[in-house]
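Re: beginner question about structure tokens

> Can someone show what the tokenized structure looks like for a real chain? I only ever see the sequence side.

Sure, here's an example I had lying around. Input first:
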Amino acid sequence: MPNRQFVHAVSAARHKLDTIIERVCGACGYSCCHTGTMVGSHGVRRLYKGMRLDAGLASRVREGLKTRAAELAADLDTIRHVTQMLQMSFGDRMSRELTDLGALTGEWQDFTEFMASDFDLTPDNLKRLTQFSAVRHNLLRQLREFPGAEAALATMSVPGGSFHFRGRKLAPPRCIFHLDGCLLGRYRPVKCANFFCNAEPNLLAECHAEMDFDEFVIANMYPESLGFVEEMILLENELGPDYWEPKIVLGCDEQQARRLIELGTARGIGTDVQQNPGGFYLSTGELLELIKAAGRDATLIFTAESVGGPALYELAVALEQAHNADILGGFILIAQRFATPSFMPHPMWSDRMMSQPLGSLEIYAITPE
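And the corresponding structure tokens:
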């Protein structure tokens, strides 16, 4: 498939997948996004890189966080009203508990004010945002020391607040980076990007109804210029090994491939370049053995004439397992083309598993100059 035609196919498939997700996600009430946040240390690094590359993302995240801060401020008003009621009812008998509640309320206020401020978008400051679940948990645990206090939060909740019951318990908070949808877009955490829920309507079932396997695979690619991929690798080199993420680059000519190999080699640690004259296909187990042998601080670079959908799935599973085991170093696969049609869909697609691990993989279809 000529490069220009393939890039067009990628753009069309991405649009179709985005349309399905927009139609389906949220029909269940965003239950996955309303159970806390999946953004941890690795998610913060993904976000930070994204904001360094895309000023628009930084602006969207900052404005979204200010909107969320207003919601936390509304909850803070409710907490203070409930505390006043508790002081009148329990002030003589539970003064120590009320003092502790006051301190935790202060932590909520500090977090809200920080979130609403124009703080520097550094990794440390972004990581602070992930601490809200702990701030909320600690305050609610202290409130439970007082009979009826938790129910009072829902009863006295002000407009714009988040305290309400789901069944017999207070509903968990939604992800701090969730507004009308995910603020992080393509830089959302790995588990979120790979997650295809089985709620009703079923997201993966809808994908199966409208897309075949190969179309779903290319829908998880990004049409980008070689300059963007170079900028991403240079940024990761600047930030260090903790920021390295695997790259699969399709549609490179020999000169472009040499440039990417130079950038991978410039990391200055160990680099292992393996050239495959034919198609790239290694099982999850084979890839994990190669990753272990290379070491956490090395970069594995593969070149190949082609790679297909099943191979990308095996690669994605291996990379996810290596990441979870903290043995993943640098990884770059450079292929001239995407091999289609696939000889058969990958079992994870055929078995309709909730994890479709291509979602978080950086697969770039190089746009023509």
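Each token stands for a local structural state, so reading them left to right follows the chain. The chain has a mean pLDDT of 92.
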